[in-house]
Amino acid sequence: MAVQRTFSIIKPDATNRNLTGAINAKFEAAGLRIVAQKRIHLTKAQAGEFYAVHKERPFYDELCEFMSSAPIVAQVLEGEDAIAKNREVMGATNPAEAADGTIRKEFALSIGENSVHGSDAAETAAVEIAYFFSGLELVG
Ligand code: ATP
Ligand code: MG
């Protein structure tokens, strides 16, 4: 597998509990390099645009409220097979189903407040990175 970049968010439940460093330590221990990072506070409309793919789902409004409730940390992670590796380190969406040692198993509060987002495919990674970062902000 080639070196890839993926997009990651440390979500409001995690920034609220000062877990940015602990989560970043997990990424770095897994060989994922943080090549861009910024802390921002999304508006509800911005959160809605980011998660537009879920707009028909019953949890969409709650998800947009949550993602705009406090600051997030937007990141680009780089490494061998980074998209799949990041999903592995994150664990299952529902923390009750997440494997031991994963971020969501250790830190997530619920299926909604689940501490991290990670891109699910190369195409979505490219779109999500471009939504949050300019080329000048990706510093290897
Ligand atoms: P993400 O896209 O955030 O990386 P994911 O790919 O594991 O997570 P998705 O199915 O894409 O999961 O759902 C996006 C997000 O919507 C979840 O991470 C979670 O915050 C929220 N979500 C998903 N399912 C539910 C649910 N049943 N109830 C409440 N919130 C949910
Ligand atoms: Mg998803």
TrEMBL record:
Residues 3-140 form the Nucleoside diphosphate kinase-like domain. InterPro entries: NDK-like_dom (IPR034907), NDK-like_dom_sf (IPR036850), Nucleoside_diP_kinase (IPR001564). Major role in the synthesis of nucleoside triphosphates other than ATP. The ATP gamma phosphate is transferred to the NDP beta phosphate via a ping-pong mechanism, using a phosphorylated active-site intermediate. This is Nucleoside diphosphate kinase. PROSITE patterns: NDPK_LIKE. It is an enzyme of class 2 (transferase). Keywords: ATP-binding, Cytoplasm, Kinase, Magnesium, Metal-binding, Nucleotide metabolism, Nucleotide-binding, Phosphoprotein, Transferase. Signal peptide: none annotated. Belongs to the NDK family. The gene is ndk. GO terms for cellular component: cytoplasm. Its EC number is 2.7.4.6. GO terms for molecular function: ATP binding; metal ion binding; nucleoside diphosphate kinase activity. CDD domains: NDPk_I. SUPFAM superfamilies: Nucleoside diphosphate kinase, NDK. It comes from Rubricella aquisinus. GO terms for biological process: CTP biosynthetic process; GTP biosynthetic process; UTP biosynthetic process. The keyword Cytoplasm applies. Pfam families: NDK. ATP binds at residues 11, 59, 87, 93, 104, 114. It catalyses: a ribonucleoside 5'-diphosphate + ATP = a ribonucleoside 5'-triphosphate + ADP; a 2'-deoxyribonucleoside 5'-diphosphate + ATP = a 2'-deoxyribonucleoside 5'-triphosphate + ADP.
